[in-house]
Amino acid sequence: MTFKTLDDLTDIAGKRVLVRVDLNVPVKDGQVTDATRIERVVPTIRELSEKGAKVILLAHFGRPKGEPVADMSLSLIAPAVEDILDQRVHFAANCIGEKAAAAIAGMNDGDVLLLENTRFHKGEEKNDAEFTKALAANGDIYVNDAFSAAHRAHSSTEGLARLLPAYAGRTMQAELEALEKGLGNPKRPVVAIVGGAKVSTKIDLLMNLVKKVDALVIGGGMANTFIAARGTNVGKSLCEHDLADTAKQIMIEAATAGCAVVLPVDGVVAREFKAGADNEVVDIEAIPADAMVLDVGPKSIAAVNEWVSKAETLVWNGPLGAFEIAPFDKATVAVAKHAAARTKSGALVSVAGGGDTVSAMNHAGVADDLTYVSTAGGAFLEWMEGKPLPGVDILHQQK
């Protein structure tokens, strides 16, 4: 590894450790509805606390645009952090200045303190030097455990690593190690599965992947754009007909790079988009004019699973069909279970993440059986697109 981890951090009793975490979790009626991101950072917080550090958490919540917004206060999240950590979590009503300083001065070794939303200050997203200095004044050491925010060069994700000794937390470490296995230095053959609704949101992703993987499986609504680009009628299916030339170019780039593009050969079609809708399986060349493809069919599932069986590394972003409603979840579930079985047998390294992928893997019941499921969303996608991640790059520079 070319970055420092908590293994490199010794003699930290009494030290003030600023830990950037991701607490940007969904909340409804004052309650956290999905605590996955909180659960992911518990090992780092607990390890630092048990070593006697004064653990000071930095995070954002929502998009307050540089102004205090009551319903975006991290005081709403603090009780959930406390429950999951099973330890008292103190709270300071600002992340800089007197309120933060007073709360930190009152900490004992091993205490955990959550500072108020960093994005309540305009300087955070601007990576402003003065704001970064004000944050740095609160700590002796900086730990970044928020890969999901690492694609942003903000004060709390990138700037602090320039002013304080910087380390990767356990979640950041696990993410980076998984990504290295996925695309950085993978075992081949490498297969990528990319699904979801639109090609337009994943052009950079597809262009990057065809140069790095041995096979690219395209599913979801975006597969219709590729199918239509080949001259096949896709009926009323979701399709970006204006991106036909883009789809053709991606297929040309893939052929040049020696990457197989795997498209559906059959599909599950329906006349209406609702759970339990009347449906039938048709060959992809026989989609009825008044129907839409909502999932890939059994022959396509077999073809994808054949590629998964050949693979030593699998990278997955996006569902193969409208998995949220039965029966259009069959392909996503079937392939996910096959990938999980191969992973558990030790034959496959499987890394999934971005968008609806976490929900799809949870729906399939395999989230704990894959090598790594990333909750990072945008950062995971930008990594797959081959874009620089400032919060990661700065950690590499600190070694």
Plain-language structure description:
This protein is of the alpha/beta class and 399 residues long. The chain folds into two domains: 6-172, 3-Layer(aba) Sandwich (Rossmann fold), CATH 3.40.50; 186-384, Phosphoglycerate kinase, N-terminal domain (Rossmann fold, 3-Layer(aba) Sandwich). The protein contains 15 helices and 17 strands. It has helices at residues 36-50, 78-85, 97-105, 122-126, 129-136, 155-163, 170-184, 203-209, 220-229, 244-257, 298-310, 330-344, 357-364, 378-384, 390-397; strands spanning 16-20, 27-28, 31-32, 54-58, 89-92, 112-115, 141-144, 166-168, 190-194, 215-218, 260-262, 266-270, 279-283, 292-296, 313-317, 349-353, 372-374. Strands 5-6-4-1-7-8 form a six-stranded parallel sheet, with helices on both faces. Strands 11-10-9-15-16-17 form a six-stranded parallel sheet, sandwiched between helices. Strand 12 and strand 13 form a beta hairpin. Helix 1 crosses helix 2 (78-85) and helix 5 packs across helix 6 (155-163). The radius of gyration is 23 Å and the shape is elongated.
**Contiguous runs where pLDDT drops below 50 for at least 5 residues:** none
CATH architecture of the largest domain: 3-Layer(aba) Sandwich
* Mean pLDDT across residues: 95
User: What is the CATH superfamily label of the largest domain?
Assistant: Phosphoglycerate kinase, N-terminal domain
List keywords for this structure.
Rossmann fold; six-stranded parallel sheet; 15 helices; 2 domains; alpha/beta; single chain; 399 residues
